[in-house]
Structure formats: structure tokens, C-alpha cells
Specification:
The protein is mainly β and 310 residues long. It contains two helices and 22 strands. Strands 1, 4, 5, 7, 12, 13 and 15 form a seven-stranded antiparallel beta sheet that branches. Strands 2-6-14-8-11 form a five-stranded antiparallel beta sheet, with no helix packed on it. 35% of the residues are buried.
Length: 310
């Protein structure tokens, strides 16, 4: 029986993987169309902030023959944003994807250390996200601000979510390679008519001194699977539409689910709402942030049914 369960899970995993497109960039031969920039600093202070972005080799003791994207800045504004971005093409047009962003980078920041204004490791928050418009800085009241909503420091925003910090370990004294990803809370985006999307990765700093990173590799996985964890049971006994939803999600439930209690959680497991199912249940999703949500129903064998809020 266990072997059959394993085979079923393997087949389902392969089926989901077949709906995925993966893009990997290691900067061996160039910038791979990635560019870097900075925001959240005064328009007149770029020299004072020591801002720099370039493609160069990794520092010792890492592989000094390997190229990476180096970005550095000295934070004097308590919120300096250092970011890299790229437009991804070749996707399906007008298609909703879940997006996994994996980042390998070198950092010298220690954890559990005292810093100016904030910690050099935990005080520098890494964020990543996807948008339809190009992420660019723009002038706002004498400061450069982003044209996308990334929120500030540790707070996640609608366009960029927190994926970790730049701290390596308590004993860090040299540049060390570490990894961050949004594997536990995938992003959701519907491509434009040309099958394009912009990816933005950056650090929001509360550490009021210099942060220097070397981006060694970025891997992006775009998946179109939206059938959910309970796809077999949902197909027969439960329908959620439209999926993705914008303002109203309708749930059509089989008789055996009627009067069962349910809860809705976000992809991180945080409860968003609760209720009781009827044959037709409507949920107003207008106030829900965009992302992936799970519908948990009592008596549904601990399965969860996935839906997307645009």
C-alpha cells in the first residue's frame, strides 16, 4: 500500500513538473540581461552612499575564477534598497503562473551581531517578487523610491515578499555562499499578452553601514499547475471558480460537504477566514492580498484545495 501511495505521489509530482518552465542564470558569460540599481536614498547623495553594481569575479576564499553580480551600498537612510532585475520572456501569454525564485549569493554578514541601526545580517532583509511592469526607481519628494510596492524592511509587499536575510552564521569572517528562496510561499502572477514578466530581487536594509553581496546564481521556475493538493477529490466533489479569483470566489460543493465547516489559510498557513459550506458558497476576496490560498474542509481527509487571488 505504501508503495502505491509513493508511486501516486511521484506521478503527480512529475505531472506538476511537466507544467513548469525553468530559467537559470549563473553569469558565466555575461550579465544574462540582469541589471542592478538602488532606491530609498536622497537624489543628491549617490556618491555618499557608495553605490556600485558590476559583474566581477567572486572574492576569496570562494572560486575567484567564477563570475557573479556584485552590488554594494552604504546605508545612511535607514532603508536603502539594493536590487537586481530581469524581464523573463517565452512564457505563455495571459497565463497565471506560480513562481519559485531561488538565489545563491555570497555574503560576509554575521548573524547575532550588533550593528549600526540594525544587525548586519538579520537587519538586511532579502526580498523577491514578480511584476508586469519594469521595477524602476523614481523621484518622490527628493528621494528615489520604487514604482512597485515592495513595502519596507521586514514587511512583505504585494509585489515583493520576504525570503530571508543576508546573515551567514555567528562566526562569519569571510565571504560565504548561502541560499534563499520562496519555496514555502510561491508567488503568483498572470503574464501579459506577450508572455512576459519582470523579476526583482533585492535587499531592504535597516543596517546603517555597508552591505556587499555577490549574486552567484538565480533560478526561476514558472509553473502553471493550479489544480491543488486535493485535485482528484476536488474534481469530483468540489468546484472553485473563477480560479484565479479577483473579487468573488464561488464554491460548489457536493452534498457530503454541505454544512461542513471550513477555513481559508494563506500559503504560510495563517488563518484568513472561516465558515460553513452550503451547496453554493460565495467568498468575497476583494480585501485579500494577491497570492495562493488553501481551502481546508472538515471531513475532506485533511486535504486542502488550492485557489489563487489575483
Amino acid at each position: 500500500m505504501k508503495q502505491l501511495v509513493f508511486i501516486y505521489l511521484l506521478v503527480m509530482a512529475l505531472a506538476r513538473e511537466s507544467n513548469a518552465q525553468t530559467f537559470s542564470y549563473d553569469f558565466t558569460s555575461g550579465y544574462d540581461s540582469w541589471s542592478g540599481d538602488f532606491a530609498d536614498y536622497p537624489v543628491t547623495d549617490s556618491v555618499f552612499y557608495e553605490l556600485a553594481f558590476t559583474r566581477t569575479t567572486l572574492p576569496a576564499p570562494l572560486n575567484t575564477a567564477k563570475y557573479a553580480l556584485k552590488i554594494t551600498g552604504n546605508n545612511h537612510s535607514d532603508d536603502l534598497f539594493l536590487f537586481i532585475k530581469r524581464k523573463v520572456t517565452g512564457l505563455l501569454p495571459n497565463t497565471t503562473y506560480t513562481i519559485k525564485i531561488e538565489v545563491a549569493f555570497a555574503s560576509i554578514a554575521p548573524t547575532n551581531a550588533v550593528g549600526v541601526g540594525g544587525a548586519p545580517g538579520e537587519g538586511v532583509i532579502m526580498k523577491a517578487g514578480a511584476t508586469l511592469i519594469e521595477p524602476v526607481k523614481q523621484v518622490d519628494a527628493g528621494y528615489y523610491r520604487m514604482n512597485i510596492n515592495k513595502a519596507n524592511q521586514a514587511m512583505p509587499g504585494p509585489d515583493m515578499d520576504t525570503i530571508g536575510h543576508v546573515g551567514v552564521s555567528d562566526t562569519t569572517t569571510v565571504f560565504t555562499m548561502i541560499n534563499r528562496s520562496n519555496a514555502t510561499h510561491l508567488f503568483t502572477l498572470t503574464t501579459n499578452a506577450n508572455g512576459e514578466a519582470w523579476i526583482c530581487i533585492g535587499t531592504d536594509s535597516g543596517f546603517e553601514a555597508t552591505t556587499t553581496l555577490y549574486y552567484d546564481k538565480v533560478t526561476l521556475t514558472f509553473s502553471t499547475n493550479t489544480t491543488g493538493i486535493g485535485e482528484q477529490e476536488a474534481a469530483a466533489d468540489l468546484k472553485l471558480f473563477p480560479n484565479p479569483a479577483r473579487e468573488l470566489l464561488t464554491i460548489i460543493a457536493a452534498q457530503r460537504f454541505c454544512n461542513n465547516s471550513f477555513i481559508v489559510t494563506d500559503i504560510r498557513g495563517r488563518k484568513v477566514m472561516a465558515g460553513k459550506l452550503s451547496a453554493t458558497t460565495k467568498i468575497n476576496t476583494a480585501a485579500f492580498p494577491a497570492g495562493i490560498y488553501l481551502l481546508h474542509i472538515a471531513g475532506a481527509k485533511d486535504q486542502a484545495f488550492k485557489w489563487i487571488k489575483q
